[in-house]
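Go through the following before class.
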Amino acid sequence: MTPLAVIVLAAGKGTRMRSALAKVLHPLAGRPLVAHVLELARQLMPQHLLVVVGHQAEAVEAVCRPYGACCVVQQPQLGTGHAVAQCAPRLAGFAGEVVVLSGDVPLLRPATVQALCAEHRRQQAAVTLLTATLAEPHGYGRIVRDAQGRVVRIVEERDATPAEKAIGEVNSGIYCFHAPFLFAALRRVGRNNAQGEQYLTDVVALAVAEGLPVAAVAATDPEEITGVNTRLDLARLEARLRLQRCQELMLAGVTIQDPASTVIEAPVQVGPDTVIAPHTHLLGHSVLGPGCHVGPHVVIRDSVLGEGVRVEPFCLLEACQVAAHTTVPPFSHLHP
């Protein structure tokens, strides 16, 4: 197996969130946004897991610590290429593959990144990028190809001509690089663009100029590359992940009477034959045993319910344990 390093970019503030909280710290399905990316990275079993931090670095580092990640500070933030370059000292002498992930792209699946790496090895490429074709490509860098269909460069939207903006194939910001090429190329990337930043995308043009293989893999589900830039984006992804979580549990034997009104955060565990009535929220690290009946209009946070527990309507349970086959009366508030 080729050695793998993963770099997660998580240094930005996220100004379009209109928030005092760094974008990657905003909660999504019960976890900070960046935690979803770290969970993916951990499943890839990398030899090195690095997270580039900047805005509210200490708080982001606290989220990264349980995943065994090493945090690298980018200060000031001068673009994606500059961010990755900060990892060069930590990867000195590393000759394997470097996968670059964005800390605000939480829907990406391990299988997609594994396919990216497999194609990178098959092509013996200097760089392989994950792309997608979107009906509305606004906001994304466009993939420019030559007459033979080969990737020539990536142009950021702010620097694109009208013809380039009409291209539907976009850059996801997810890459696999040959490490020695990556860090040598970054030393040559300048900041001559509309943003005055060092773009990681310029590494692709350098590879092309040197006649090195550049490969591309299209995401089978374009929504996987969806990033979070605004609270509207966050709400859309929350709805998708909420439905996805309900579907997983229903396929595992849980009855959810109204998935549209049910919130079950990612860390929650629910046993089979449990029935969850409408307008129920299961939050934090709650664990529900098999055969429970919960709701409607119930909130359970960081609590453990034994087998066969019945929680009647309009209850709030916080950080408590409920013994098996107990009935919690309506309008109860249980807490330590």
